[in-house]
C-alpha cells in the first residue's frame, strides 16, 4: 500500500516533512489512510471524481488544480508515464524551494522514474517497501521540460490530455460499438465513461437523439470532450458513472465502453457496476448498447438487470452487447 510506504519513510526512513505550511497530496487515493500526516495541513489535488468526492466527504481540502505555494508536495505516482512526468513538474513548480516526495509502486514505473530523477536532482533519501519506492528531494527547477500542455491535439485533430484513455486515437472498441449503433437511436441518451468524446460524437450523428449526457469521472478528459463535442445537444457531467443521477427523466438509451482496469489489474467489477447503473438510469423501455473485451464476464450481470440481452456484433477481440427492458426497480 502506498500509505504504508509513506509512513515507513516518515517513521524509519529519514523523511522529515516541514513543520509548517500546506502539504499537497497529488492524486492520493480517496481511501488512503493519513497516518503520519496532519490532515489539517493537507490539500489533496485530484481530477478523478470518485477520489475527489471521497476526500471531500472526509472533510479534506481538495481541488482539481494546484493552488500553492506548498511547503511540500507528495506525488502518488500514476500508471501513465506522461501524466507522471507532468505531475512531478507541476508539483515542483507549485512547491518553490520545498520538499518533493515521490511515492510509487514498481508496477506504476517508479524504478524508471527514479533513474530519470537521479540524472536531474540530488535525492535526499530513498526507501523501498511494499513493492515500490518512496524518494524525496528539494525543488530545484529541474523539470520544466516535463511540463506538458493541459490539452493538445492528437494525430486525428482531437484534443486530449496526458494520462487519459486512448489519447492517441479513437479506441478500437469504441469504433466497433459506434458501427453497431442503430440509426433509430433516439431520445435522451447517456454516454457513461465518455472520455474525451469520440464515441459521443458518433452517438450525436443520430438525428433522433434529443440530448446526450456525457458522464466522465476524469476532469481533464471531460475538459477535452467539451472542446471535441460542440453539438448543442451535448451536456457534460463530471461524475462517477456508477452513482450519477440523470438531471432529467429516465433515459431512453445508454451507450458505453466501460473501463475495466484499476491500476494495472483487470477488474470486471467496474464494468459490472456500469451495467447496474445503466439499468437504474433507463426508462422501462430503455435500451443499453455496450462494448467489452471478449473475455470479460458481463453477461450474468446483464441478465440480472435486463429482461432481454443479446450479443449483436463482435470479433475475436470485442463483443457488442445489447440489453433492453431493465428489470431492477428504480430508486
From TrEMBL:
Any GO BP annotation: methylation
Gene3D superfamilies membership: Vaccinia Virus protein VP39
Keywords from the UniProt entry: Methyltransferase, S-adenosyl-L-methionine, Transferase
SUPFAM superfamilies: S-adenosyl-L-methionine-dependent methyltransferases
InterPro entries: RsmC/RlmG, SAM-dependent_MTases_sf, Small_mtfrase_dom
Molecular function GO terms recorded: methyltransferase activity
Keyword tRNA processing: no
Domain Methyltransferase small as annotated: residue spans: 160-321
Protein name stated in the entry: Methyltransferase
UniProt organism field: Thalassococcus lentus
Amino acid at each position: 500500500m502506498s500509505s504504508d510506504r509513506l509512513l515507513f519513510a516518515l517513521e524509519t526512513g529519514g523523511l522529515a516533512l516541514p513543520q509548517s505550511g500546506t502539504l499537497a497530496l497529488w492524486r492520493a487515493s480517496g481511501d488512503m489512510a493519513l497516518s503520519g500526516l496532519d490532515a489539517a495541513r493537507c490539500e489533496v489535488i485530484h481530477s478523478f471524481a470518485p477520489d475527489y468526492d471521497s476526500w471531500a466527504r472526509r472533510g479534506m481540502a481538495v481541488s482539481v488544480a494546484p493552488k500553492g505555494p506548498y511547503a511540500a508536495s507528495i506525488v502518488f505516482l500514476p500508471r501513465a508515464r506522461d501524466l507522471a512526468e507532468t505531475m512531478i513538474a507541476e508539483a515542483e513548480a507549485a512547491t518553490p524551494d520545498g520538499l518533493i516526495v515521490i511515492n510509487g509502486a514498481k508496477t506504476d514505473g517508479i524504478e524508471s522514474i527514479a533513474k530519470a530523477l537521479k540524472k536531474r536532482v540530488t535525492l535526499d533519501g530513498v526507501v523501498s517497501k511494499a513493492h515500490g519506492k518512496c524518494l524525496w528531494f528539494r525543488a530545484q527547477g529541474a523539470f520544466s521540460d516535463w511540463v506538458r500542455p493541459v490539452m493538445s491535439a492528437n494525430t486525428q485533430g482531437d484534443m486530449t490530455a496526458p494520462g487519459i484513455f486512448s489519447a492517441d486515437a479513437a479506441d478500437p472498441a469504441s469504433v466497433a460499438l459506434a458501427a453497431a449503433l442503430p440509426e433509430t437511436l433516439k431520445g435522451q441518451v447517456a454516454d457513461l465513461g465518455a472520455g474525451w468524446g469520440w464515441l459521443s460524437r458518433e452517438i450525436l450523428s443520430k438525428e433522433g437523439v434529443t440530448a446526450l449526457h456525457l458522464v466522465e469521472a476524469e476532469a481533464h478528459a471531460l475538459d477535452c470532450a467539451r472542446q471535441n463535442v460542440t453539438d448543442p445537444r451535448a451536456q457534460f457531467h463530471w461524475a462517477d458513472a456508477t452513482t450519477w443521477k440523470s438531471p432529467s427523466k429516465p433515459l431512453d438509451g445508454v451507450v458505453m465502453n466501460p473501463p475495466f482496469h484499476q491500476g494495472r489489474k483487470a477488474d470486471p467489477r467496474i464494468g459490472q457496476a456500469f451495467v447496474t447503473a445503466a439499468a437504474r438510469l433507463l426508462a422501462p423501455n430503455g435500451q443499453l448498447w455496450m462494448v467489452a473485451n471478449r473475455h470479460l464476464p458481463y453477461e450474468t450481470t446483464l441478465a440480472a438487470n435486463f429482461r432481454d440481452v443479446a450479443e449483436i456484433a463482435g470479433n475475436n477481440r470485442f463483443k457488442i452487447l445489447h440489453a433492453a427492458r431493465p428489470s431492477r426497480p428504480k430508486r
